[in-house]
What does this fold into?
Amino acid sequence: MSDKSNLPAGWTGAAPDADALFAMAEAALGAMPDVFKPHIRNLVISIEEFASDEILASLDIEHPYDLTGLYEGRPLTERSIGESGGMPDRVTLYRIPILVEWIEGGERLDWLVRHVLIHEIGHHFGFSDDDMHALEDMS
It folds into this structure.
């Protein structure tokens, strides 16, 4: 019998389920630098299998495997100080596309979940995709 102590939390031998991805996302959030934490404390993280057809169409994405995450909310750069009462900002991670990218790319799954999560949180801070790609290229 093999030693299961080295397996990721929540891993059962099958593809990691939504709870396992959620645990990885929460661990990534917990590891964020303290300076960001006040700005993301009310951020809702959810895991879904795929984006809906409506979401894909609104983003002009043809294939559901092409969307691994989505930020929904109003970026901090577009808010006023007196705003309140709105729905909490949300980051949705799409499990199946993330797993496909994980299989095809070969990196650690927790790193990939962290990467997708941080990318979507970047939108929360008002960064565009081009901004985030430029920052990644510089690091």
The longest strand covers residues 44-48. The mean pLDDT is 81. The radius of gyration is 16 Å. Helices lie at 18-30, 37-40, 53-58, 95-105, 109-124, 129-138.
